[in-house]
Amino acid sequence: MSKQTVVQLDRVNKWYGKYHALRDIDLAVAKGETIVICGPSGSGKSTLIRCLNNLEQHDEGGIKICDITISENVKDIEKIRRHTGMVFQHFNLFPHMTVLDNCTFGLRHVLGMPVSQANEVARDLLNKVKIGDQEQKYPGQLSGGQQQRVAIARALTMSPDIMLFDEPTSALDPEMISEVLEIMRSLSKDGMTMICVTHEMGFAKEFADRIVFMEAGSVIEISPPEEFFVKPKTERAKVFLDQILAH
Amino acid sequence: MNDLNFTGKPIEAREPAASQLSINRVVEWVKRNLFNSWFDSIITLLIILLLGTVLPKALDWLFFSATFSGAGRADCSPDAACWIPIRQYIDYYIYGPFPESEQWRVNSAFAVGLFAFPLLFTQRIPQKIVIGYILFLPVLLWVLLKGGFIFEDISTSALGGLTLTFFLGIIAMCLSLPVSILLALGRQTKLPILRWICVGYIELVRCIPVITFLFMASLVLQLFLPGGVSIDVLFRVLFVLIFVSAVYKAEIIRGAIQAVPKGQIEASYAMGCGYWKTMAYVVMPQALRNSVPALISNFIGLFKETTLVMILGLLEVMGAVKATFNNAEWLGLHAEGPIVVSAFFFVACFSIAQYGAYLERRIRRTKH
Ligand SMILES: Nc1ncnc2c1ncn2[C@@H]1O[C@H](COP(=O)(O)OP(=O)(O)OP(=O)(O)O)[C@@H](O)[C@H]1O
Ligand SMILES: [Mg+2]
């Protein structure tokens, strides 16, 4: 492979009690790639993406992020988390902080950057997600789309190498979805490595380099979008696509 | 979202024009709220009757027929309040037996203590400074009122009245919150031994009456200490007040910690923040905000519990007032003392409650 591999999963397994949530997952993501993970509800998409920054712990196999292997070592895990930014379905902004303070949180408390410098970095990114004029508001005073844009800016402040998105538009009203997708598009264009769990097939068609289709804890297909949408390899993927595209 | 105009300031609701507030609307309000049904009407009439008979008598007893000045008991009417002893002993109620030449220290203590109040209300001063001041206040009060550092020592028996109430109340309030935060975190931690200690401590202490601990602090503790060593009774009383009320606060805070959504912690972890920083900057601030109403009630309760030290012979304001009414001259006046004490506690506790209400308003402003 010509490009550097930044995410490497090697036969990853995970159980919730007796429930086998991830089965032998193998995946390698190159720098700059945009990966879309899709699949029916309960297939393990969230579990997989949350294992990448150790919000969930996998039980077997290896996960390597930017050449750091996930282990019990807390320092390593914190390092991995600094290399990855995560955007959640429900934004998870800190409601007791202003938009600006949300975005300087990591810079101040994790990197120990002085406030004025942190504010500068954060303002720059808030402008990039077109929300610079709302920096003194609290998250509760913003619309869902605006909150999600702030959440993306907050994750970007740590200048991550990889961005993880877990259904970033699923909690949004339709008219706000596009404003968030637009930000994701420009990130993808700028060469950010992205792993997105999403049902936005339009985004997947246009920007994904590869699509990972999951079912019952296994990855059953990895194809470029032109193949996946036109000629899915499995019957299950075909049914899934029919269902999701029927809307 | 709020109604916002172009300057970004909330649009204020307009006052209705004065002419609209006519008699009609008053009548309308009275009809709707006081005489809505025959049952409402009866209740309203009964209350009016009750107030009509009791209120004039009460006001008469308290003020109109009451005696405010005079030489002694002989000047007082037996059918109305006699405020003469209150005026006579007011200095004693405030300063207790504190040496007169040192009373400026009490005044300074009141000043630095009450200064915390505007400090808590302002948003101009950085929070760190306010918290620092609150944590430093107990030391300041101890030095001013009890001595140490450059100040002459004052014997414990010289502390009394409002001075003592203030001393115990403020110090206990300032220190019990940090202790309770640590207890709540301890009860949440994954370290088993620490968790068991915290759980055991909380369960034990909250099932035993405070007054028992106060007795034990003064008597039992002495049994365990090697002969000759004694800890100042004020110190022991404070210890009990702080560590008992912290238990209730810890449970309030623990509940509020659990109510903080898991996603908040995950968002913080996902940025590489560790456990302690996540607790300090993400979880605790939200938990404390959510527990304001319950914590304020607890603070009010704690402030009033300072009256219990009376049983150890410490004459805080209630004890001081009671003592003066044991004077032969004023024997038999039962109501005046408690009324004055009630008035004082009401003012103090209502102020605490107002601070709580202010905090809630401030927190609400960050939502919607
Ligand atoms: N904390 C947990 N404890 C037990 N089971 C869990 C837990 N989290 C997830 N699961 C189970 O693991 C499976 C995969 O869950 P996951 O959230 O990864 O699915 P998903 O593909 O993200 O689904 P969705 O599209 O609904 O978000 C589900 O069957 C779920 O019930
Ligand atoms: Mg999911």
From TrEMBL, chain A:
Domain ABC transporter: 7-241
SUPFAM superfamilies (alphabetical): P-loop containing nucleoside triphosphate hydrolases
Record-given protein name: Amino acid ABC transporter ATP-binding protein (PAAT family)
Main localisation: membrane
Record localization: Cell inner membrane
Gene Ontology MF annotations: ABC-type amino acid transporter activity; ATP binding; ATP hydrolysis activity
Keyword Protein biosynthesis part of the UniProt annotation: no
Entry similarity comment: Belongs to the ABC transporter superfamily.
Keywords: Amino-acid transport, ATP-binding, Nucleotide-binding, Transport
Lineage, opening ranks: Bacteria, Pseudomonadati, Pseudomonadota, Gammaproteobacteria, Oceanospirillales
Organism listed in the record: Marinomonas rhizomae
TrEMBL record, chain B:
Transmembrane segments: 34-55, 104-122, 129-151, 163-186, 193-217, 223-248, 337-358
Primary location group: membrane
Coiled coil location: none
Keyword field: Amino-acid transport, Cell membrane, Membrane, Transmembrane, Transmembrane helix, Transport
BP terms from Gene Ontology: amino acid transport
Cellular component, GO annotation: ATP-binding cassette (ABC) transporter complex
PROSITE patterns per the UniProt record, alphabetical: ABC_TM1
Gene3D superfamilies: MetI-like
Subcellular location: Cell inner membrane; Cell membrane
GO MF: transmembrane transporter activity
PANTHER family: INNER MEMBRANE AMINO-ACID ABC TRANSPORTER PERMEASE PROTEIN YHDY (PTHR30614:SF41), MEMBRANE COMPONENT OF AMINO ACID ABC TRANSPORTER (PTHR30614)
Family: Belongs to the binding-protein-dependent transport system permease family. HisMQ subfamily.
Name by which UniProt lists this protein: General L-amino acid transport system permease protein
Species of the source: Marinomonas rhizomae
